Predict the 3D structure of the following.
Amino acid sequence: MDMSYVIVAALFVLSPLLLFHALLKSTTAEPPLLKGRIPLLGVALDFVNGPQPLLERARKKYGWIFTLYIGGRRMTVVSDPVVGMRQVYSQSRNFDAHAFFKYLNIQLFKYTPRINSDAAFQEALLRHVVSYLAAPANVEEIASVMRKEYRALVDENSDLCTGDYADRNGTVVDLYNFARQKTYIAAAIAVFGKAFPAKEIYTDYITYEDSLSRFIKSYPYIFNKRGVDARGRVLEYLADFFTDNEKSSQSSSFITGISDLFRKFGYLSPDDLSGYFLSIVFASKSNSVPMAFWYLAFIIHDEQFRGEVMKIITSHYNSTTQDFDWQALYRDELLNSAFKETARLVSNITSGRVVCRDSMIKIADSKAPSSTKEFYLRKGDSVLVLASMSHWDGEAFPEPMLWNARRFMPENSGKLIKHDKASKDGDPQWKAYIPWGGGGHMCPGRHLAIVEAITQLVYVLWYFDVEKLSADVPQMNVGENYGSGVLKPSSTYNVRFRRREAPATKA
């Protein structure tokens, strides 16, 4: 066949698509549009291969709002910490979080369609989760069990230590694997009870967790086989656990309260239970556990600050009860500042909303924040707020990629955190710190995250002398994981653990 005919035929077939792409543009009322060079795909390949450089280039060129054209859809990125992000979080009539979560519920957790589409049931579950974790007494119920379990995991006689971390001569470990395993198991037992198969599902769960970005991006099975198969095995364990009342009844009142709602609404099939409770495992582990690692790693690496932390820990130890004043530790101003700084630096959360009707959004001028302009957003498009675009903004947080434990201390307001209060010239207050999202769907697990991090920190520094062996704290593994949650380390962080003969009891 003459190749000229093939070329003409191909052009005839593709011409409508090419014409559509050529005419694709934003109106003067809409945010600037990055449509890319490839019809239909748009900037999809650039976004998959290097989302962070793409987004940073776009923000530098266009400011605090722009739209990406990806796979036939428009996704508008809003990074305006003055007025824009607040509207995305608060205007639920215009920007619907439920549609975004319904997609993730299927992609990540394999919700059954009937649960995913039952708005009343979803609302009842959300109310229970938010109200329960907002009560300090409820958080303490879980925290007290977690402390007991974590202490057992690092105790000299623990079968999970088996000498590896109890060696007084010093054992080299990768701190991330250590922290990940210990915090995961202690927190899982605290939330789901002693009968929960925490150790049995651990390996499969972290395989699934490490594949999250592939689930979110809808990779075909052949490119996500390990993740899909691991998730399937985890779901089987969860189905077995939550259909066995004798086992699941040993869970915390947080979980038994959720189980009561499942019975009330009549959702009792193994698939109904396993999909939803996988999302609870994810919510309680997949961001707080790596956060706890980074918190510990940054403090261990800064030896001077570690000494200050040790004094704080020791000052709250009661030799009579042989326990700590945990509430004082959880409230400590410096420990909280270090935790907030850790969350700022490593949080890579995406908050997504679907535009449920044609809307206008007001965006501040990045160069003159007291001035604003309105932009038109189309019904059916998506709006994304990416935490790292605010957290790594040098205008909001000077030296943004530097971990500074004192950044959130009161005396550094306006210095290490700029624009955190209204300025004298009338510029409005910035809200650039958003590690937990915002609005009615702000992560309720934030109340437990700091408890997990401080509990691990206290017990590790109390029982072990920890010698850092790596020159630096690892870089964050951004890559294709951009926007999928708290970032994991890109390399190992080796330390040497030496168990103390006896913990210090004097400051």
Notes: Residues 235 and 285 are 16 Å apart (CA to CA).
